[in-house]
Amino acid sequence: xxxxxxxxxxxxxxxxxxxxxxxxxxxxxxxxxxxxxxxxxxxxxxxxxxxxxxxxxxxxxxxxxxxxxxxxxxxxxxxxxxxxxxxxxxxxxxxxxxxxxxxxxxxxxxxxxxxxxxxxxxxxxxxxxxxxx
Amino acid sequence: xxxxxxxxxxxxxxxxxxxxxxxxxxxxxxxxxxxxxxxxxxxxxxxxxxxxxxxxxxxxxxxxxxxxxxxxxxxxxxxxxxxxxxxxxxxxxxxxxxxxxxxxxxxxxxxxxxxxxxxxxxxxxxxxxxxxxxxxxxxxxxxxxxxxxxxxxxxxxxxxxxxxxxxxxxxxxxxxxxxxxxxxxxxxxxxxxxxxxxxxxxxxxxxxxxxxxxxxxxxxxxxxxxxxxxxxxxxxxxxxxxxxxxxxxxxxxxxxxxxxxxxxxxxxxxxxxxxxxxxxxxxxxxxxxxxxxxxxxxxxxxxxxxxxxxxxxxxxxxxxxxxxxxxxxxxxxxxxxxxxxxxxxxxxxxxxxxxxxxxxxxxxxxxxxxxxxxxxxxxxxxxxxxxxxx
Lengths: 133, 390
What we know:
- The complex is a heterodimer.
- Chain A is mainly beta.
- In chain A, 6% of the residues lie in helices and 38% in strands.
- Chain A has a single domain (19-132), classed as CATH 2.40.50.840.
- In chain B, strand 10 and strand 11 form a beta hairpin.
């Protein structure tokens, strides 16, 4: 079952939640931006201003974009079908995403994947997607 | 002070409808309230506490419904944690009764997703973009079926769970549903029927999913003195627990549910263990939901759920743990896309000896009703209620 591009919806705008705007600006520039705590040094996801592990202050970092598939489910009932899953970033946190540019039947948990960016519909921001490495 | 036994379930009523295009959601709530009060032998004027969740129309928690039903309440609560809200409400009602804030608590649930044509499991539902996760999740198409599919896939990867083992859960539900005249799906199915039904979202097939139905239910909780003055069999609340589970900042583990945390305080309050339970109502939005919750509640070791549910072990009269003897959400009813209250209602039927004779558990004196609300794949609440026939 081959990947077929679908329209990617977005809700609100990158300004809706002001503190996460740099994530979308980064994605538009082809960068996966994540937050890392200056106190406990842990990287988290989805991005927050305050560290969800210790409420410490965080800074933006560009992630390597390398990840492994934690799990996935191919939504065969959808038209076109799509593959949703979590990937675990090299930096630690697991991230909800879709898989693109691949044969869905060949996807495997534990597989190495890399980030790529896809524009959302109606002029929305780009978002990180993942493809086999 | 333990709250064990501080409240009794004096009334329980499930709406018989599964499709109600000609009734408002408010009317369905009121019909359920009326049914549960009549079941208890109480009247509307006896109610002084009202509990509802997000399915109650109006948007300001309980306000529209207490107005519509013209209730005079001293206490209200509208904690909304999806389908698990009603187990949570039982716990909160027991606390309120113990604290003297109300004597007769009414809990209602109703909805009509079937009449409204909701594609409950397969259509991602956009929410308020100000919800902090929304812009990081909704674009990827999270629908109920794939959020549970991801859990099933990881469970299979870590523990070798199979589609055939999951199918046994549906098979057991269908064996029970054949005796429920109100059930949406009354045909007994086989493991082959389940695994050969169309794939919805891997690895979950159509028959791994619950029904989409209209309807509802209601419960009446009272303080012990009132319950004992009524004519119905006594069903005592002896254990409650509630806990949310979420993505933990990206530290994701989809192989277990919040039952791991809601179960222990409920078992501790009740002073019993899983092997004491005669009947189990287990939230069944999908087959995988049941399997994971059974593990997390301690009915079997983690990872052994597949073996536990296989070969009819959940079928009343056949296996060791009769579950969802009304057919559950998988076959009978999932009103408002929230199956928590029907789980409690069937547990009450079993404890009263009022389940269908073909599925009634003999000498049923201890039962559990566990709920899950939200989505196992992102964030959800688990809520556990343990009941005893006195």
